[in-house]
Amino acid sequence: MNGWWETLWDHAWWPTQWCAVLVFALIAAITDTRTRRIPNILTLPAFIGGLCWAVAVGGLAGLADSLAGAVLAMTPFVLLFVFAGGGAGDAKLMAAIGAWVGVIGGLFTVATVMVAGGVLSLVLIIARGSYREVSANFMWILDSLRAVVLGRGESRKGYILPSVESLHTMPYGLAILLGTFVASGGAWLWHG
Description:
By secondary structure, the protein is mainly alpha-helical. The chain is built from 5 helices and no strands.
């Protein structure tokens, strides 16, 4: 091992942590699909379990890797929650996953989850036949950003994003599950 950020990536028990995050992601995807929520009763124990796992595997270096992985994995989803009406449960689940897999696993998982989210969004747009609504919302965002950046006029009603009610949403727990599955496959290939 070269640095503390590799503690949760490069150890003998790595399959256990990936199995754990896949279980959490599966439960979250099922719950999110049914209720459109990822409950704290899942995310909090998963997060605490990740911290405990990290200490057991790597001591203080493992804890540092775990905490950094949690912050790294949740940050894009916190930003989506704050600025675009994403779910807080998504951010908390990603923090728990990051706590289990650390910085390297967290980076890989965030990337694969975002790709999975984009692919699922396209599938849902096609399945719902909502091209026009999505295009209108996209044009709203571009026009508002243009107005803000160039200082010409105001963004529509003072908002850069359209109202949350007009956005087409999906249970992002599915994207988290698919992305985590791909990331765990990547970990298997890397360590294999």
